[in-house]
Write a structure and sequence with these properties.
By secondary structure, the chain is an alpha+beta fold. It is 47% helix and 24% strand. The chain has 7 helices and 13 strands. A 6-stranded antiparallel β-barrel has the order 1-8-12-10-9-13. A 4-stranded antiparallel sheet has the order 5-4-2-7, with no helix packed on it. Strand 9 and strand 10 form a beta hairpin. Helix 2 packs antiparallel against helix 7, helix 3 packs antiparallel against helix 6 and helix 4 packs antiparallel against helix 5. The radius of gyration is 56 Å and the shape is rod-shaped.
C-alpha cells in the first residue's frame, strides 16, 4: 500500500509540474495566413471580336507577351485614310514653305516689265515720226480733196449747160464728199497725235503697273505666315489622328504588363469583348506576401522592417525570408480562416509580410504559411509602408 501511495504521489507531483510548466512556458508567436500576390486584370481599351487566344490558364508569361488578339475590323482602312490625308497636308505645307517656283517668279517679273513698258509708252505719247506721217497723210488727203473739188465744179458747170450726164455728176459728188471726209479724218488724226495720250489711258497704265508690282512682290515674298500656320495645324491634327488610330490598333493585341501567371482567361475566337472591360486575370508572382492577422496583445512585438522566417507546409523543413512591410492602422475582427494560439475573440490587426530572396520562386499563391514573429530580426531604418 505504501508503495502504491508513493507512486500515486509521484504521479500527482509530475502532473502538477507538467500543468505548471504548460501554464508558465512562453507561447510561440506564430501566425498563420495565406500566400497572396498582386492580381492584374487586363483588357483592351477598344474592344471588338476576339481573333486569337494565345495564352492559357496557368501559363507563365513574360512581360510584353501577347495574351489574345482582337480583329481590327475597319481600323486598317481608317489608318490608311488618315495616313493619306496626312501625306496631302504635309505636301501642301511643304509647298507653302518652299514658296513660288522660279518660273512663277520670272513670269511675275515679265508681267511687271510689260506693264512698265505700257506706262512708258502711254506717258511718252506718239512719236514725232508718227505725227509727221499723219501730217503727210493729211496733205495727201487735202490734195485729193482739192482735185475732187475742182472736178466737182467742172462737172457742175457742164451739167448746168446740159453737157454732162447725171451719172457723171453723181460720181463727182461722191468723190468730192469722200475726199472731204478723208481730209477731215486725217486732220483729226493729226490733232489727236499732237494732243498726246489721254489722261485716263495713263492712269490705267499706272494702275496696271502697280498691280504687276504687287503681284511680283507677293510672288517673291512667298505665302503668308497665316497660311503656313494653318497648314501646320492641319498637319498636326492629321498626325494626332494617325497616332490615335495606331494606338487603338496596338490595343488590339493585349499583352502581359509584367512577368506573371495567367490565373483565368475565359475567351474563345469569335467572342466579343467590351472596351475597357477586364478580360484576363493575371497574378504577379514576382511579389508574394503573407496576409496575416496579429492579436492586439502581440502588436507591440511587430515592427515595420522586421525580417521574419516564413514556413509553408509544402517545405516543412525550410524557412523563407519575409519582411514586415505593412501594419494596418485600424483593428478588425479575426477572420474565420486564420488560426493563432491567441484568443479568437480579441481584435486583430492585418499585417503584410513580403517574401524576399530567390527561393520565393518555388512558392505558389494560395499556400498556407506560418509567420514566426518570435524569431524576427529587427532591421532599421524602417521600410516605408505600402
Amino acid at each position: 500500500m505504501r508503495k502504491v501511495a508513493v507512486i500515486s504521489i509521484v504521479i500527482a507531483c509530475a502532473l502538477v509540474g507538467w500543468l505548471y510548466w504548460r501554464q508558465t512556458r512562453p507561447v510561440p508567436f506564430i501566425v498563420s495566413g495565406f500566400l497572396e500576390a498582386d492580381e492584374i486584370r487586363v483588357g483592351s481599351r477598344v474592344g471588338g471580336r476576339v481573333a486569337e487566344v494565345i495564352a492559357q490558364e496557368g501559363q507563365a508569361v513574360r512581360q510584353g507577351e501577347a495574351l489574345f488578339r482582337i480583329d481590327p475590323f475597319d481600323l486598317n482602312e481608317q489608318l490608311a485614310e488618315a495616313q493619306a490625308r496626312l501625306a496631302g497636308y504635309r505636301a501642301d505645307l511643304a509647298r507653302l514653305k518652299a514658296g513660288f517656283r522660279k518660273e512663277e517668279i520670272e513670269q511675275a517679273r515679265a508681267g511687271r516689265a510689260q506693264a512698265a513698258a505700257a506706262l512708258d509708252k502711254a506717258v511718252a505719247g506718239p512719236r514725232a515720226r508718227e505725227i509727221d506721217i499723219a501730217r503727210e497723210r493729211l496733205k495727201s488727203t487735202q490734195a485729193n480733196l482739192e482735185l475732187a473739188r475742182t472736178e466737182h465744179e467742172r462737172i457742175s458747170r457742164l451739167r448746168a449747160e446740159n453737157q454732162a450726164a447725171t451719172a457723171e455728176y453723181d460720181r463727182a459728188v461722191r468723190e468730192y464728199t469722200a475726199a472731204r471726209a478723208e481730209a477731215a479724218a486725217a486732220q483729226q488724226e493729226v490733232a489727236l497725235l499732237e494732243e498726246g495720250t489721254r489722261k485716263e489711258d495713263i492712269a490705267q497704265a499706272r494702275a496696271a503697273l502697280a498691280e504687276a508690282d504687287a503681284a511680283l512682290k507677293l510672288t517673291e515674298s512667298g505665302y503668308r505666315s497665316e497660311d503656313i500656320a494653318r497648314a501646320e495645324a492641319q498637319v498636326a491634327a492629321a498626325e494626332a489622328q494617325v497616332a490615335t488610330i495606331e494606338t487603338r490598333m496596338k490595343e488590339l493585341t493585349v499583352k502581359a504588363p509584367t512577368d506573371c501567371v495567367v490565373e483565368a482567361i475565359d475567351l474563345r475566337p469569335g467572342d466579343l469583348v467590351a472596351p475597357n472591360a477586364p478580360s484576363v486575370s493575371l497574378l504577379d508572382a514576382a511579389r508574394l506576401w503573407v496576409r496575416s492577422y496579429v492579436p492586439e496583445a502581440r502588436l507591440g512585438q511587430v515592427r515595420l522592417g522586421d525580417v521574419v522566417p516564413v514556413r509553408v507546409d509544402s517545405f516543412p523543413n525550410e524557412r523563407f525570408n519575409g519582411r514586415v512591410t505593412y501594419i494596418a492602422q485600424q483593428a478588425e475582427f479575426t477572420p474565420r480562416n486564420i488560426q493563432t494560439p491567441e484568443e479568437r475573440s480579441k481584435q486583430v490587426f492585418r499585417v503584410k509580410v513580403t517574401i524576399e530572396g530567390p527561393d520565393k520562386a518555388r512558392l505558389r499563391v494560395g499556400m498556407v504559411a506560418d509567420v514566426m514573429f518570435d524569431e524576427a530580426k529587427k532591421e532599421w531604418p524602417m521600410t516605408k509602408p505600402e
